[in-house]
Amino acid sequence: MKQTYNVAFGFVRDHDRAEEITQEVFVKVYTSLSSFRGESEFSTWLYRITTNLALNHLKRHKLNEERSVIIADATDVHIERVLHELPTLQRAVVILRHIDGLSTKQVSGILKCSEGTVKTHLFRGLKKMRSKLAFLQEGGI
Amino acid sequence: MIRHADAKLMLYDLLQNELTPLQRSEVEAHLVVCKECGAELQSLREIITLVPRPDTDASDGRSEQYWNLFASKVEQEVR
Q1: Cα torsion at A112, A19, B52, B16 (round to 10°)?
Q2: DSSP assignment of A54-72, as one string?
Q3: ipTM surpassing 0.90, yes or no?
């Protein structure tokens, strides 16, 4: 349960929202358990549900200015904005692989893509973030 | 010898110390001769410094009592 919460938090960076998603995940797991065929590890299936629900959640609750205000640190605001500007798959890979620290193999199982695709999305996503956040280093924020 | 495209995609794992000794030595040998990968490595190092992997889990901020209550809440929800 904690690990699910941590993955959800990586996406939404907000404790209340992570809690809401975790609750949704376990309700979904309970109601869909019969559809789990054991083709992947249970944890992979669980993280896949978490990722899908977190991405849906983000779509429903687009980041807005009000959200930015509650984050005290200006650097965090910029990082979160740039992270959420990434295309969906790149964002999911950066969050799961870099922020949550899951392995390339785990992420490829969750997103149902090859390990090479995970590495490519991670590289491109981080590169894009580096370029968009370059001003933070130049401006010394 | 490792291909340039493969080496480039292994730079992140190199920075996170997640390569096998053999992979590590291959990527490091490639870096000696490839300026582009050297620049990419530096760029990745900068973004990883700027956006570090959190050293604690978000769940650590909640007490055990919270998790017990949360589990009960979820249990009630699915009943």
Answers
A1: -40
A2: HHHHHHHS---HHHHHT--
A3: no
A119 Cβ under 8 Å from any chain B Cβ: yes
- Comparing CB atoms, the residue among B43, B57, B77 nearest residue A2 is B57
DSSP string, A11-67: HH--HHHHHHHHHHHHHHHHHHGGG--SSS-HHHHHHHHHHHHHHHHHHHS---HHH
Q: How many residues does chain A have?
A: 141
Asked if the Cβ–Cβ distance from B59 to A123 is below 8 Å, we say no
Q: Does A141 touch chain B (CB under 8 A)?
A: no
Name residue A63's amino acid. Answer: L
The reply to whether B23 touches chain A by the CB within 8 Å rule is no
Is any Cβ of chain A less than 8 angstroms from the Cβ of B13?
Answer: yes
Q: What is the pLDDT of residues A75-110, one digit of tens each?
A: 778 888 888 889 999 999 999 999 988 999 999 999
- The number of beta carbons lying within 10 Å of the beta carbon of residue A80 is 17
Q: B48 and A98 in contact by Cβ < 8 A?
A: yes
Model confidence pLDDT, tens digit, residues B35-79: 999 999 999 999 998 888 888 888 888 888 888 888 888 788 777
Nearest CB to A1; choose among B46, B47, B71: B71
